[in-house]
Each structure stands twice: as structure tokens, then as C-alpha cells.
């Protein structure tokens, strides 16, 4: 029976070892979703906003540049340290704190708005995380969440699974069609299907809407946003593939096959996209609702 325990991305302590590489590789990608969430909040300079599961601070910094009063929390101490350092480097003011987003240490109605970019959706208790955001936002204020959707269009995962299958079985899966098909298959003949990633629990719009409704919030406005993960080359991306705990665990599980998988990934990407800079798409929902 497959384990139902926490997945690597759900364990805050693991993120302490991924601060720099996440900031370099993945934050520019997720910031495209964050920008959409920030726009949907519709805040004015001087208003207060809470960023839950703030990571290394990309969204919090963007909010602070709009002259908002920003509080950013994350359960990873090193992520919080990085937020503070980046704010100081940029001459910005962000109140960054290490905190469990499922038990926010703020009074009711403390903020004008709150957002979480691919953060709350990782919590073991997503409903509790959103309930806490609702509690600390004043009536009439907005709460915005970003969650993954359309996993078949998350090209990095598709390409990685295609490369794994090709390296394991000796097949070639260089086309987009082949990569997409491989994204839904097992990693190899000796591996069992993995549990559904926590990030995909709300990939269906109906489930995402129900999450807001369950907290007694207004009907959410949901936008589907496509972003691109940019890399200077396929080789560079392969060398920095362990940007998050889950991805690092995936590579570790490959054992002595990892090098071959990375070579196949580079080959497939260069065949499809060329030897220079590349961009891989991913899709997320941005949902925003008002606190009654």
C-alpha cells in the first residue's frame, strides 16, 4: 500500500536546503502567477496584505514595491531569513516571520487582504489554512490563492517523465505528444505509481470553488493563467533540477539512473527547443474571493 504520509514538499524543514536554487530557477516562473493574484486583489498603496507560505519572498517583494504594508510568513526559517535579506537589499519594508500558516498568530481582521501563491495548497490541512486567512482579513477584504491545474500541460514534469521512461526502457520520447503521454504513466517498469501530488488536489475548478465556499466566502473569481519557466539552456535546467524538495526526492529515487535520465532530458529538450534558451509552460488557477 502506498504511503499516505507527508510528501517532501509538505515538510517545511526540507525547504531550508532549497532557498537559493528555488529563487533562481522556479520563483521567476511562479511570479507570473503571483502578478495575476496581486492584480486580482486590487489593493491601493498603504493597505495591509499578508503573504502565506511566502517562500523566498518573490510575491512579498512585488507587493512591497507597490507601497503596500506587507507581512510575509513561511514555516521554513531560512526562507524567512532570505525574505528579510532581500527586502533590506532592495530598501523595502517587509515584516517576515516564521509561522505555521495553519495557526496564524494574528488577531481577527488584521489585514486588508491575503494571498498564497502555491503555498496553502501544500498544507496538510488546506481548509484550515484558508480558514485562517479568512479570519485575519477584514470583512470586505480579498483572499487570493494560486493552485496548479491542467497537469498534462506542465511541460517540465511531462518532459522529466518522458526522459525517465526513455532512459529506463531505451525508447525515445522527444515529442510534445510523447512527453504528455509519459506524464500520466509510471516512471519505469520497476516503480509503482506515486500518490497524487498534494499540489494537484484542487486541479479541477469545481473543487477549487468548493474550497472557498466551504469557508463561507463569496463566490470566487477564478482565472486560468499560463506561465513559462525560462532557462538559459536545457543543460542548465538539468543541472538545477533539484529546486524543490519533491523534485530533489524524485531525482534521489532514481539512484544510479539519474545521470542517464538527465542526459535524456537534455537531448529531448534540445531536439524539440534547440540548444539555446528554452521555455516550458505551466498552468495554474488564480482564485480570489471576498470575506463577507
Q: C-alpha Rg, in Å?
A: 19 Å
Order of helices and strands: HHHEHEHEEHEHHHEHHHE
Number of domains: 2
Largest sheet: 7 strands, mixed
Which fold does the CATH topology of the largest domain refer to?
Rossmann fold
Termini gap: 43 Å
Number of helices: 12
Give the integer mean of the pLDDT values: 91
- Give the DSSP E fraction (strand runs of 2 or more residues): 15-25%
Helix content: 40-55%
Q: Give the strand order, joined by hyphens, for the main sheet.
A: 3-2-1-4-5-7-6
> Which CATH architecture of the largest domain is right?
3-Layer(aba) Sandwich
**The CATH top-level class label of the largest domain:** Alpha Beta
Task: Describe the overall structure.
- This protein has 292 residues and is of the alpha/beta class.
- The longest helix has 16 residues, at 258-273.
- The chain is globular and about 55 Å long.
- The chain folds into two domains: 8-149 and 202-226 and 282-290, 3-Layer(aba) Sandwich (Rossmann fold); 152-191 and 234-273, no CATH class.
- It has a seven-stranded mixed sheet, with helices on both faces.
- Helix 3 (27-41) packs across helix 4 (58-65), helix 7 (155-169) crosses helix 8 and helix 7 packs across helix 12.
- The chain has helices at residues 12-15, 19-25, 27-41, 58-65, 77-89, 126-136, 155-169, 176-182, 205-213, 234-239, 245-254, 258-273, and strands at 48-52, 69-74, 94-98, 111-117, 137-148, 221-231, 278-290.
- 41% of the residues lie in helices and 20% in strands.
Amino acid at each position: 500500500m502506498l504511503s499516505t504520509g507527508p510528501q517532501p514538499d509538505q515538510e517545511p524543514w526540507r525547504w531550508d536546503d532549497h532557498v537559493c536554487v528555488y529563487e533562481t530557477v522556479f520563483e521567476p516562473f511562479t511570479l507570473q502567477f503571483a502578478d495575476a493574484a496581486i492584480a486580482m486583489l486590487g489593493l491601493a498603496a498603504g493597505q495591509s496584505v499578508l503573504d502565506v507560505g511566502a517562500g523566498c519572498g518573490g510575491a512579498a517583494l512585488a507587493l512591497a514595491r507597490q507601497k503596500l504594508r506587507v507581512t510575509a510568513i513561511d514555516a521554513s526559517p531560512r526562507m524567512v531569513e532570505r525574505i528579510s535579506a532581500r527586502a533590506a537589499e532592495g530598501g523595502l519594508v517587509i515584516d517576515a516571520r516564521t509561522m505555521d500558516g495553519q495557526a496564524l498568530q494574528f488577531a481577527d481582521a488584521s489585514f486588508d487582504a491575503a494571498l498564497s501563491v502555491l503555498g496553502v495548497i501544500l498544507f496538510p490541512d488546506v481548509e484550515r489554512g484558508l480558514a485562517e486567512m479568512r479570519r485575519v482579513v477584514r470583512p470586505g477584504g480579498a483572499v487570493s490563492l494560486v493552485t496548479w491545474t491542467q497537469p498534462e500541460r506542465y511541460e517540465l514534469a511531462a518532459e522529466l517523465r518522458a526522459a525517465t521512461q526513455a532512459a529506463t526502457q531505451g525508447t525515445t520520447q522527444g515529442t510534445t505528444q510523447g512527453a504528455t503521454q509519459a506524464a500520466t504513466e509510471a516512471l519505469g517498469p520497476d516503480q509503482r505509481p506515486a500518490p497524487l501530488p498534494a499540489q494537484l488536489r484542487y486541479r479541477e475548478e469545481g473543487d477549487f470553488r468548493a474550497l472557498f465556499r466551504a469557508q463561507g466566502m463569496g463566490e470566487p473569481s477564478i482565472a486560468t493563467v499560463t506561465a513559462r519557466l525560462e532557462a538559459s539552456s536545457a543543460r542548465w535546467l538539468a543541472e538545477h533540477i533539484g529546486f524543490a524538495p519533491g523534485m530533489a526526492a524524485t531525482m534521489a529515487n532514481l539512484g544510479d539512473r539519474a545521470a542517464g535520465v538527465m542526459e535524456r532530458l537534455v537531448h529531448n529538450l534540445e531536439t524539440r527547443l534547440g540548444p539555446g534558451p528554452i521555455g516550458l509552460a505551466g498552468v495554474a488557477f488564480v482564485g480570489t474571493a471576498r470575506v463577507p
